[in-house]
Amino acid sequence: ESPHVELRLANKIFLADGVEVKPEYQQLAEDIFGSSVEKVDFSKTDDAVETINSWCAQQTNSKIKNVVSS
Fold first, then answer.
1. Nearest to residue 35, comparing CAs of 53, 51, 59?
2. What's the distance, CA 16 to chain centroid?
3. Given a cut of 90, is residue 66 above it in pLDDT?
4. 8, 32, 45, 63 - which has most CB atoms within 10 Å?
């Protein structure tokens, strides 16, 4: 009997505050990659790191917690 294996994919675009994304691009990212866009204030490094790492942890059931660092 084979062990249970689960493969999950997650995509998200973290975009710097003040950078605009064309609606067509955002729609393509959603339709093709299942990706959403979230604005992040990268000038607040610790907050940006927390935002990205928290999202990653949520998507991986806390198996990946620190994908970026300051």
1. 59
2. 13
3. yes
4. 45
Instruction: State residue 6 phi and psi, 5-degree precision.
Output: -125, 130
Segment 5-27, tens digit of pLDDT: 888 889 999 999 999 999 999 99
Q: Which two tokens stand for residue 28?
A: 């393509």
Domain boundaries, the chain: 12-59
E strand map for 1-70: 12-16, 36-40
Reported pTM: 0.84
CA 60 – CA 68 distance, rounded (Å): 15
